[in-house]
Amino acid sequence: MAVTIKDIAKRAGVSYSTVSRALNGVECVNEKKREEIRMLAEEMGYVPNLAAVQLKKARSGIIGLYVEDLEHISSPFSLFSGIKTVYDVLGKEYSAVVKSINKHIPGSLNPALYDGILAFDMSKPQYEFWDEVKAKGIPLVIANQQVQYDAPIVALDQEDAIYRSMKLLLEKGHRRICILEGAPERSATILRHAGWVRAVREFCLNPEDFPVFDCQYSYYYASLSMPEILRKRPDAVLAFNDDMACAAINYARHFGLRVPGDLSVVGYDNWNFNACEPIGLSTFDRQIGLIAKQCMTLLQRMICGEEIPARIHMVKAKFVDRGSVAECGGAYGRITD
Predict the structure, then answer these.
(1) Quick one: which of 108, 173, 209, 237 could link to 328 by a disulfide (CB 3.0–4.6 Å)?
(2) Number of other CB atoms surrounding residue 229 within 10 Å
(3) Considering only the top CATH level, what class is 62-155+288-315?
(4) Is 70 exceeded by the pLDDT of residue 54?
């Protein structure tokens, strides 16, 4: 039976793609490793298929950017960052193709079309699609999914970001804090919820004493919830995204409350600068640009044949202080029961 590249890869303890690139003389496999693989191939009696060699030498120059649902993308800035980093990291010889996972026909991925795929902007793991990418031998990097999977993942530490949000409010003396959350079944909501609960417990407080509102990550639903929220006389609002935080600020100011004098508000995202800057919203930046760059750098190394361990690379959110959080002591903070 003829010796195959898979046989050589197994013997050498490296991936199929590394052997393929070494035998094809791709420079991103270091010279020593290329020579070791060539010698092993000769020792094993490997005879290359010339037609296959010519096919493998041709790169498509295309990176697939796959989001869960292109019609309902969570942040236009995340899509912009994904496209931008293709050119920033890989160079102008590469192009980006943007597609929706929910419109993908299972089994239709063409490995000759993509040099690599970045999967991002997903509300939940897309195991079936990821499995197909892996099965087709296409280098895959996943963004912002904190799950165990056989591929490198770059993710924002969402639990830590909301933990720091709540800790900030508690350290400033706030105790009447209302939390504006999103759909409870979403993985992002679960992680963020765990963050503020951890901070509350560190202050020896009971999480059940903190009112939670499911505002669906929506400005509209947060606005509808604000009358009930204000009836609880909060001294602070912690929102799971900036849309809900902006709704809280605008509604409070409309009814004469000062932010942060009477009500502190902290958000999470920092992608909608046009909304955040004018109203002075303090928030935690999701570091979308940094995550996209790290993802594309990992993908570049995989395209070049490097073995990248399947682990989660965590990124910390960055606090952006625009003055919407202050020491407790406003209109509600002065009221005692």
Answers:
(1) 173
(2) 21
(3) alpha beta
(4) no
